[in-house]
Design goal:
The complex is a heterodimer.
Chain A lengths: L7 E9 L4 H14 L3 E6 L9 E9 L15 E4 L4 H4 L11 E5 L4 H7 L5 E5 L1 H8 L6 H12 L8 H8 L3 H14 L1 E3 L1
Parallel strand pairs in A: 1-4, 4-5, 5-6
Antiparallel strand pairs in A: 1-3, 2-3, 6-7
Chain B lengths: L2 E6 H11 L4 E4 L6 H12 L6 E4 L3 H13 L4 E5 L1 H6 L1 H9 L5 E6 L13 H5 L6 E4 L3 H15 L8 E6 L7 E6 L2 H7 L26 H30 L6 E4 L6 E5 L3 H14 L4 E6 L1 E3 L3 H8 L4 E6 L10 H10 L7 E6 L9 H16 L7 E2 L5
Parallel strand pairs in B: 2-3, 2-4, 4-5, 5-7, 6-7, 10-11, 10-13, 13-14, 14-15
Antiparallel strand pairs in B: 1-8, 6-12, 9-11
Helix pairs in contact in B: 1-2, 1-7, 3-5, 10-13
Classes of the chains: A alpha/beta, B alpha/beta.
Chain lengths: 190, 391
């Protein structure tokens, strides 16, 4: 695998159409760019059907500009927005040995790690419950950004303020709350 | 002041049209172009852009409305993709013949069937001969810059030709990336107001879109051919002015690590960036390889292309469109044709890939470059190969 540079983090988002995986990737890219980093977000361009498994991708680099536009086959980070996908999609496919899988599930990271037979780090959070409580809907795109920041860093939570405002207007504050709550509640198993 | 922002490429193209202060946008939404015109419709609706947005029932009508608006001297923009471009097809020639400076972004997409909304160059290749100026963007920054540049060139009194800015569907249109956007004052320094010399005006009647018998048709076609080839001077001048003002340089043919390369790969559009990663990887292994990127498609940059490949032994050309039953890809055919009369020329191998949104990784580009090298070493002959086909 040609490495463009060692300062690049590649993230693969797994969601279902309508759940907001593409939005999650967009928010992370906008926050990273606002921090002066190089970043890209793009969807997997699969069938745009509500409920169908979809992918979105991020490349974030603290080094040179990003060039490759290929889909991410060997991610550093995998984020799973829908617990149901854990059973039907090989979400950890290609995940780097020192990578991390972050999932929205009621299960503990140890449980999920055993279930998926993973060697990599695993982080979990019940994002659906957080989103229902804080946002009143079970859309977990912003919630899982909080989990990502807890488990993988990538961007500072503060850098999400403007992108959230731009994307959600008067609902930005509540989405920020959901993100922060997920940051607090995400549990990581080394 | 120039500012660095993260923005979806489609929205940046819409922003370029807004900064150009377009008077009329007429378009029909079609994936993967939709975000461009959706954003423009929003700008018109909320007062960010003082323009007429003419919603129409088809792309044929969209281009027809553009003919009318450009003919009265209004700055005119539209965007389409794939089947939409094909539905416009017959009207595209009329824009050329009437010398109307319409600017159109094409979010390059495959053609049916099978139905496929993803990226390749089948759509633009089918409109190769419509007489428009046609250029390709490699990334979002270029899509933004070239859209502004397109108005400057199309409306130049010495050009007056419709201009198409091609950007790959999805792999460019749907990507958020950092870009340097310009502001109104900067754009004003580069782009003068549109002064169409002979606009439709009831007080001063002119004939547009006239009929031509066999006595005149050939001369009219010769005039169109001259207009397009001569437009190149203005295209280059506008790129130079753009570089002088904003520091970003554009050329008809661009190269990457090509100077001493024994094997070159030629691409168009967004594949160039991914392919450049493959070139770096092969260079790191000691392979003398490089990249040639064709930005200007019409008029075809014969001299620049010959210059770019003059010292190499092998040239691999990747087409994202197929000419069924023919010589393979349209780009490769034209490259071969441009080199045919040269005494010293590289061995050219055509490849077809990236059809209908098929992803190509840096490893795929490495394999392609090495394949061309090996074919040359073995003395193999081939019209073209379709790569990545599962059999």
């Amino acid at each position: 695998m040609p490495q463009q540079n060692n300062n690049m983090i590649e993230i693969r988002w797994h969601g279902r159409g309508g759940q907001g995986a593409v939005t999650s990737a967009e928010l992370v890219a906008l926050a990273a760019i606002a921090e002066g980093k190089n970043a890209r977000a793009f969807p997997s361009f699969g069938p745009e059907r509500r409920g169908a498994p979809v992918l979105a991708f991020n490349r974030v680099s603290t080094g040179e500009p990003i060039r490759t536009r290929a889909e991410i086959a060997k991610p550093d980070v995998v984020v799973v927005l829908d617990p149901g996908l854990l059973r039907i999609v090989d979400v950890a496919a290609g995940l780097k040995e020192d990578g991390v899988l972050i999932a929205n599930t009621k299960k503990s990271p140890a449980e999920l790690k055993a279930e998926l037979h993973l060697k990599q780090r695993v982080a979990t959070v019940d994002a659906t419950a957080i989103a229902r409580e804080v946002l009143g809907v079970t859309i977990v795109n912003t919630t899982m950004v909080g989990a990502l920041i807890k488990a993988a860093g990538v961007v500072d939570m503060e850098s999400l303020r403007e992108p959230l405002k731009h994307r959600f207007g008067h609902l930005a504050e509540r989405n920020a709350d959901a993100m922060k709550e997920a940051f607090r509640k995400t549990v990581i198993e080394e | 002041m120039t500012k660095r922002v993260g923005i979806e490429v489609s929205l940046a193209v819409a922003e370029a049209a807004r900064l150009a202060n377009v008077d009329v946008v007429s378009a029909y939404p079609i994936t993967p172009q939709t975000h461009i015109v959706e954003r423009l419709a929003e700008m018109v609706a909320n007062g960010e852009l003082d323009a007429e947005f003419i919603p129409v029932e088809s792309e044929h009508s969209a281009m027809s409305a553009c003919l009318g608006s450009a003919a009265v001297g209004a700055r005119t923009f539209t965007a389409t993709a794939g089947q939409g471009l094909e539905l416009m097809h017959e009207v595209l020639y009329i824009a050329t013949a009437m010398r109307l400076p319409i600017v159109m972004a094409v979010a390059n997409r495959a053609l049916s069937g099978p139905l496929n909304v993803w990226g390749d160059h089948s759509d633009v290749m089918a409109t190769r001969d419509v007489g428009w100026i046609q250029v390709f963007a490699e990334n979002g920054q270029e899509a933004f810059d070239l859209t502004l540049w397109a108005f400057r060139v199309a409306e130049d009194p010495g050009v007056l030709l419709p201009t198409m800015v091609n950007l790959d569907g999805f792999t460019l249109t749907h990507v958020i990336e950092p870009m340097m956007l310009l502001d109104e004052a900067e754009v004003k320094r580069f782009l003068p107001p549109n002064h169409y010399p002979l606009p439709l005006n009831p007080a001063k009647p002119v004939t547009m879109g006239a009929f031509a018998t066999p006595v005149h048709y050939t001369e009219a076609k010769k005039a169109q051919e001259m207009a397009l080839t001569q437009a190149k001077t203005t295209m280059l001048k506008a790129w130079q002015e753009f570089a002088d003002l904003f520091g970003r340089h554009y050329h008809p043919v661009e190269t990457y690590r090509a100077e001493d390369a024994r094997v070159l790969l030629l691409t168009m559009g967004s594949f160039g960036e991914t392919a450049s990663v493959a070139v770096d990887e092969l260079r790191a292994r000691g392979e003398k390889v490089g990249l040639v990127k064709l930005r200007m498609w019409r008029p075809f940059p014969f001299e620049e292309l010959r210059h770019a490949v003059q010292h190499t032994d092998v040239l691999a050309v990747l087409d994202r469109a197929l000419s069924p039953g023919g010589p393979g890809g349209p780009v490769c055919s034209e490259v071969k044709s441009a080199l045919y009369m040269q005494e010293k020329k590289p061995k050219v191998f055509g490849f077809i890939g990236g059809l209908g949104g098929r992803d190509m990784t840096p490893e795929d580009f490495e394999a392609l470059i090495m394949r061309a090298r090996d074919m040359a070493h073995k003395g193999m002959e081939s019209e073209f190969e379709m790569i990545g086909v599962r059999e």
